[in-house]
């Protein structure tokens, strides 16, 4: 039998030089093939499958294996079934729940492992390249429209619409190509799955959402933060070395059974603070002096480490006074907050036992601090004659550790991390700033990313509102988060003087560098004293500029 078959996609041609399926230009006549049965071949997977002409053309019989098909090879005739759809079509714009993300991820891992076995490297890819039948994830296959890279030779024409490529492919660094390149692509696909419902349109937007995952997908395990970093590190040597290593890490994250027993754990904590080398220089320069006896006067941060030894309760608190205050000062605001926490803990420590009691404790401390700040302002300005603005304020991270659980709340732009040898360093909170607020409320990335004042904090203790000739304290609700602790973990609470200067790159140029740089210091010093660890972090921040007060609390979780 003689038929016209598109040599690119294998579909039956009509009386046109364009294939209706893939748009390939075909000289009719050249595409003529005569056979009684078709040989479907994937030479990389070493599979040959024969189907009859009738089954192939009219009944849409397809290759069931392998997990991937290289469409660039004309000898492969792979037809999608009529009820099949791309992965992009399947997920649409809906939010994927964790169980569905897991199913898709494990199937993708299987596909990527087969590519690794054949030493194939993906040049470019997107979610349209994966197809499944009857909405069954187990039928998901990679239907590659671009040539795989073999022998580390990059073909220039790899682009096919919007696609994901590894940094090695984009920069054409052939000697750097390896399975780490596929790890990067896998990480980008994974990020697209978990952020699917946000309509993300650019790589920068995707990376920002991924770093601040706790804001946009707080329902997902916090340990995804480090997992994503080890997939997407711009330096290939710092990624997972292989898909197999990636698979082991992912399975551990998903299958890990957390210790939920209410067992006692010991916590060893230490807080340290430093004015910041250039912060101090600027302050002295503004005062036209070269030296000041009490340098701490220029430090607007505060920290607290308190314990109730009898009940084995530990309280950790850090506040970063807002330096732009016009009425009062950031130092005064954080000092008021510190005083109130001390008094409340001494009085109420025995009542701190669960989320409800700790939320009540935090709410009362914050409410009293807001009132005290307003009362202090009233002594500084006559509100009957002028409208106050720029009222002093402070951030707060407050954590209470009871037995094996840490309860915490976060207000402002200070940061909370947790480290373990198994999980690396993971970020537990996000910044309360204008940019995050607008993005969380659905504003488009391009409307926010370069807007003025995008990093201004939106939640803080202090400030106030002027209404009907009177000054009222700020009111807002807080959230309490609970985390099960395990021996060997290290808790890190720090002001933005750490995160802004822990790496040579400016903070918002590459957010992942913050986690990477901090994790490196912790790994190198985790067996040493907390004093050594804190000093290493402070020294690094000062070496990279030290343009703000640098404050850190570290806590080791012990048996």
Provide a descriptive summary of the structure in words.
Helix content is 33%, strand content 20%. It is of the alpha+beta class and 559 residues long. The protein has 3 domains: 2-70, no CATH class; 84-255, Transferase(Phosphotransferase) domain 1 (Transferase(Phosphotransferase), domain 1, Orthogonal Bundle); 266-558, Phosphatase 2c, domain 1 (4-Layer Sandwich), CATH 3.60.40.10. A 5-stranded antiparallel sheet has the order 9-22-21-15-16. Strands 10-11-13-14-20 form a 5-stranded antiparallel sheet, with helices on one face. Strand 18 (465-467) and strand 19 form a beta hairpin. Helix 3 packs antiparallel against helix 5 and helix 16 (512-525) runs antiparallel to helix 17 (530-543). The longest helix has 24 residues, at 355-378. It is elongated, with a radius of gyration of 29 Å.
């Amino acid at each position: 039998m003689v038929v016209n078959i598109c040599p690119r996609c294998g579909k039956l041609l009509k009386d046109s030089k364009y294939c209706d399926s893939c748009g390939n230009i075909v000289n009719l006549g050249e595409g003529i093939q005569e056979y009684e049965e078709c040989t479907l071949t994937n030479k990389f997977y070493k599979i040959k499958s024969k189907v009859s002409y009738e089954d192939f053309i009219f009944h849409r019989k397809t290759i069931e294996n392998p997990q991937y098909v290289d469409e660039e090879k004309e000898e492969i005739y792979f037809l999608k079934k009529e009820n099949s759809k791309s992965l992009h079509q399947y997920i649409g714009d809906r939010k994927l729940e964790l169980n569905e993300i897991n199913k898709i991820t494990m199937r993708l891992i299987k596909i990527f492992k087969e590519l690794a076995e054949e030493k194939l490297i993906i040049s470019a890819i997107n979610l349209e390249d994966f197809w499944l039948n009857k909405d069954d994830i187990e039928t998901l296959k990679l239907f590659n429209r671009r040539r795989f890279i073999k022998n580390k030779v990059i073909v220039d024409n790899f682009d096919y619409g919007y696609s994901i490529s590894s940094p090695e492919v984009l920069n054409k660094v052939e000697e750097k190509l390896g399975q780490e390149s596929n790890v990067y692509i896998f990480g980008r696909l994974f990020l697209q799955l978990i952020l699917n419902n946000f309509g993300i349109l650019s790589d920068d937007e995707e990376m920002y959402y991924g770093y601040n995952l706790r804001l946009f997908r707080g329902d997902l395990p916090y340990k995804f933060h480090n997992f994503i970093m080890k997939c997407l590190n711009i330096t290939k040597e710092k990624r997972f070395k292989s898909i197999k290593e990636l698979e082991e890490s992912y399975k551990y994250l998903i299958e890990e059974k957390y210790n939920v027993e209410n067992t006692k754990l010991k916590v060893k904590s230490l807080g340290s603070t430093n004015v910041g080398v250039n912060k101090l220089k600027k302050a002295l320069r503004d005062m036209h002096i070269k030296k000041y006896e009490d340098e701490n006067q220029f430090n607007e941060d505060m920290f607290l480490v308190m314990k109730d030894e009898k009940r084995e309760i530990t309280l950790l608190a850090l506040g970063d006074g807002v330096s732009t205050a016009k009425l009062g000062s950031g130092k005064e605001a954080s000092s008021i907050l510190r005083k109130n926490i001390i008094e409340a803990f001494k009085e109420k420590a025995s009542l701190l036992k669960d989320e409800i009691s700790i939320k009540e404790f935090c709410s009362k401390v914050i409410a009293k601090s807001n009132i005290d700040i307003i009362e202090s302002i009233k002594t500084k300005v006559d509100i009957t004659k002028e409208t106050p603005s720029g009222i002093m304020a402070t951030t707060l991270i407050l954590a209470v550790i009871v037995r094996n659980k840490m309860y915490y709340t976060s207000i402002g732009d200070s940061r909370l991390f947790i480290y373990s040898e198994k999980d690396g360093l993971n970020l537990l909170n996000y910044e309360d700033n204008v940019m995050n607020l607008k993005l969380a409320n659905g504003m488009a990335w391009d409307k926010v990313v370069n807007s003025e004042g995008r990093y201004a904090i939106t939640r803080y203790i202090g400030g106030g509102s002027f209404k009907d000739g009177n000054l009222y304290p700020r009111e807002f609700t807080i959230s309490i988060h609970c985390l099960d602790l395990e021996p060997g973990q290290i808790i890190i609470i720090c002001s933005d003087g750490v995160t802004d200067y822990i790496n040579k790159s400016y903070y918002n140029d590459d957010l992942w560098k913050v986690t990477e740089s901090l994790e490196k210091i912790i790994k190198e010093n985790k067996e040493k004293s907390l004093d050594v660890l804190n000093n290493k972090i402070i020294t690094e921040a000062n070496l990279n500029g030290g343009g703000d007060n640098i404050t850190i609390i570290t806590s080791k979780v012990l048996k």
